[in-house]
Specification:
- The protein is built from 5 helices and 8 strands, in the order H-H-H-E-E-H-H-E-E-E-E-E-E.
- By secondary structure, it is an alpha+beta fold.
- It has a domain of 108 residues: endopeptidase domain like (from Nostoc punctiforme) (endopeptidase fold (from Nostoc punctiforme)), CATH 3.90.1720.10.
- Strand 5 and strand 6 form a beta hairpin.
- Helix 3 runs antiparallel to helix 4.
- The longest helix is centred in the middle third of the chain and has 64 residues.
- The radius of gyration is 49 Å and the shape is rod-shaped.
- 20% of the residues are buried.
Length: 201
């Protein structure tokens, strides 16, 4: 019995001393040096990446906002240009028409030496705007877009007496025309002659 105990103890002792049975001690792990510079570089790289992302997001947002601002400014400028062109066209038309106040009515006339009603409107449109609206009142009716007098704008041609007379609308209830033989180009009130409709060109 005593011999068996000695043998078992020897076996256990041999296993404990065997290289295969050696274990790694905790103090051996803690004694391993840690490279802190690598961790610092990684942390700095992460911060740089976050900063880059933030900068890119701000840049994209800024570019987008600037483009929207530019588009809005272009749209506003286009609207102003269109409105300005319309106003300029009407102003040119009326300005030229008023230059001929006092020119005598001449049947078939279409020049500053004498106008009939449609000769006056056709001449003013051609010289002021470069538009050919037709020589006779019926040509002008065929070439224009009919609108009610309530929708008439300054510069539109007004049609009277079923198409036998035309004039140019000045706004504020007035129009300019070459009325009849023995008369001259002048400004008249709508209250004395109610137009059938207006023509846009």
């Amino acid at each position: 019995m005593f011999k068996k105990t000695i043998i078992v103890a020897a076996i256990i002792s041999g296993i404990g001393l065997s290289p295969l049975g050696q274990s790694v001690q905790a103090d051996q792990i803690s004694s391993q040096p840690i490279d802190l510079s690598s961790l610092t570089e990684l942390n700095n790289a992460s911060k740089s990446l976050n900063l880059l992302r933030h900068t890119m997001n701000n840049t994209v947002l800024s570019v987008s906002q600037e483009k929207e601002k530019q588009d809005a400014e272009k749209a506003a400028q286009s609207a102003k240009t269109i409105q300005g062109d319309e106003k300029t066209s009407a102003d040119k038309l009326i300005e030229l028409a008023k230059k001929y106040i006092g020119v005598p009515y001449v049947w078939g006339g279409s020049s500053p030496s004498g106008f009939d009603c449609s000769g006056f409107t056709s001449y003013v449109y051609r010289e002021a705007l470069g538009k050919e609206i037709g020589r006779t009142s019926y040509n002008q009716i065929g070439n224009g877009k009919k609108v009610t007098f309530a929708d008439a704008k300054v510069g539109d041609v007004l049609v009277f007496f079923g198409g036998s007379h035309v004039g140019i609308y000045l706004g504020n209830g007035e129009f300019i025309h070459a009325p009849k033989p023995g008369d001259q180009v002048k400004i008249s009130s709508i209250s004395g002659m109610t137009p059938d409709y207006a023509l846009e060109y």
